[in-house]
């Protein structure tokens, strides 16, 4: 278990690229010029409180992206809170019925399927590079503009903009939540859409790649990075170039853009997403925030946390 007191000033390893903010500002400007392009198709759904829809939109690169979308039964003339939900690595948006409780509490819920993973969203990233055991490195060999996670982060922002555009959603009361990769996408979305009000991020992935590598990533969620070196560059001739490219999708550098209030949940014995990597992003957040450490737990179900945060999304 790490000693948080010894990491109070830790701001991550690796340098923020000089053009980092220009990189993301350009991407967001291109997204802003692109139509929202969404379609809603209602599904048969037995619930006393909720209606359910497939939401599809077309990303700027042409990929068709899917989200589960649930609303209260009657929306005419009303304004509801919005809730964005993001799932873990390789997974999907989960069971539809899991969202009924949030709808009953007055939320319109949009749950993204990350492209090319377990859900319905497609990934059309074209890459000649290796994709070994994961998606962090997808498109990496072509440079920062072809990174898989650049596209996913923008998908999150696109979905947030769709949710905020609806006349029955209060755009000033939109929230986001997720765990692991979902926590990472929550943080990325809040960074790219500063209008988001509050977020709950549970042990977020995708922070401080070089630190994760140095800690021995073969046994963590970052395992694809050492595998890439092992099979594509065993002499590490491209090491600096690779980590510089990954810096563009490193949450430690996106974190200062966040305006939302952040609740960050961390299992201090997490060996899948090491706490040190998470702190690189958390400690760079300048908005109101709280760290919720769970001392005897790792990358797993964390009891009592949800009860502790009940009512946070107000």
Write structural notes for this entry.
The chain contains ten helices and nine strands. The radius of gyration is 19 Å and the shape is globular. The chain has a nine-stranded mixed sheet with strand order 1-2-3-5-4-6-7-8-9. The longest helix is centred in the middle third of the chain and has 18 residues, at 148-165. It has 314 residues and is of the alpha/beta class. Helices cover 28% and strands 21% of the residues.
Which properties best describe this structure?
CE7; 314 residues; 21% strand; Rossmann fold; alpha/beta; Acetylxylan esterase; carboxylic ester hydrolase activity; 28% helix
Quick overview:
The protein has 314 residues and is of the alpha/beta class. The chain is built from 10 helices and 9 strands.
Structural class of the helices, strands and pairings?
alpha/beta
Per CATH, the class reads Alpha Beta
Characterize the largest beta sheet: strand count, sense, and whether it forms a barrel: 9 strands, mixed
Mean pLDDT: 96
Low-confidence stretches: none
Helix content: 25-40%
Strand order of the largest sheet: 1-2-3-5-4-6-7-8-9
What is the count of structural domains?
1
- Overall strand count: 9
Looking at the overall shape, the CATH architecture is 3-Layer(aba) Sandwich
Oligomer classification:
single chain
Order of helices and strands: HEEEEHEHEHEHHHHEHEH
CATH topology: Rossmann fold
- Overall, the morphology is globular
The share of residues in extended strands comes to: 15-25%
Q: What is the CA–CA distance across the termini? A: 33 Å
Cα-based radius of gyration, to the nearest Å = 19 Å
- The CATH fourth-level homologous superfamily: Alpha/Beta hydrolase fold, catalytic domain
Query: Helix count, per DSSP?
Result: 10
Organism: Pseudolactococcus hodotermopsidis
InterPro entries: AB_hydrolase_fold, AXE1_dom, CE7
Pfam family, one: AXE1
Binding site for substrate: 89
């Amino acid at each position: 278990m790490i000693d948080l007191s010894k990491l109070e000033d830790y701001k991550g390893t690796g340098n923020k690229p000089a053009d980092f903010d220009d990189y993301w500002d350009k991407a967001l400007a291109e997204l802003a010029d692109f139509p929202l392009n969404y379609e809603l198709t209602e599904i048969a759904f037995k619930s006393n409180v909720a209606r359910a829809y497939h939401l599809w939109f077309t990303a700027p690169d042409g990929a068709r992206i899917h989200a589960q979308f649930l609303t209260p039964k009657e929306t005419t003339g009303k304004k509801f809170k919005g809730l964005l939900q993001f799932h873990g690595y390789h997974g999907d948006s989960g069971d539809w019925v899991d969202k009924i409780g949030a709808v009953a509490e007055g939320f319109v819920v949009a749950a993204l399927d990350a492209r090319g993973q377990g859900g319905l969203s497609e990934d059309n990233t074209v890459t000649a590079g290796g994709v070994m055991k994961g998606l962090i490195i997808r498109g990496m060999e072509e440079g920062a503009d072809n990174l898989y996670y650049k596209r996913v982060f923008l998908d999150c922002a696109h979905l947030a903009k769709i949710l905020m555009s609806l006349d029955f959603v209060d755009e000033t009361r939109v929230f986001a939540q997720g765990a692991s990769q979902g926590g990472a996408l929550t943080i990325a979305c809040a960074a790219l859409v500063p209008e988001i009000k509050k977020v709950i991020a549970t042990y977020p992935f995708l922070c401080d790649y070089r630190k994760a590598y140095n800690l021995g990533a073969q046994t963590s969620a970052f395992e694809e990075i050492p595998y890439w070196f092992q099979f594509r560059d065993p002499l590490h001739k491209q090491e600096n170039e690779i980590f510089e490219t990954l810096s563009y999708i490193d949450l430690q550098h996106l974190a200062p853009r966040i305006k939302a209030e952040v609740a960050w949940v961390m299992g201090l014995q997490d060996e899948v997403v090491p706490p040190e990597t998470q702190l690189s992003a958390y400690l760079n957040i300048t908005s109101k925030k709280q760290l919720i450490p769970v001392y005897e737990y790792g990358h797993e179900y964390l009891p009592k946390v949800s009860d502790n945060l009940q009512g946070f999304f107000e």
